């Protein structure tokens, strides 16, 4: 396992981990935007999704499905947003890859259409 001493995701407590496989762990976000908001984090310190090996990427995909099943069972969300910030220009502030899995619930936003497009609010409404 590759770690960086100042990286908060390299210093996770075992008690914070809710699921894992050989390459990645899952934790609940400490600043959740929704009930069950989770982060999939590689055990190897890499900054970007694009630095994963094919084996790591496939393991991430598998753990994403496991995480969804756990969240479906525990919280019964109506949908999901799944996102990754890659690079400072995209809003990445912790430079250890982490994939956000944000459960969505009916009524959690007045009009959820546009989903992740709200990163650019002026471009989010495309259907008018």
Automatic annotation (TrEMBL):
Q: Which GO terms describe its molecular function?
A: methyltransferase activity
SUPFAM superfamilies, sorted? HIT-like
Database matches in Pfam families: HIT
UniProt keyword terms in alphabetical order: Methyltransferase, Transferase
Q: Name one GO biological process term.
A: methylation
- Supply the InterPro entries for this chain: AP-4-A_phosphorylase (IPR052908), Histidine_triad_CS (IPR019808), HIT-like (IPR011146), HIT-like_sf (IPR036265)
**Name under which the protein is recorded:** HIT family protein
Quote the PROSITE patterns the UniProt record gives. HIT_1, HIT_2
Q: Which residues form the HIT domain?
A: 5-111
Question: How would you classify this enzyme at the top EC level?
Answer: transferase
Q: Does the keyword Methyltransferase apply?
A: yes
EC number, as in UniProt: 2.1.1.-
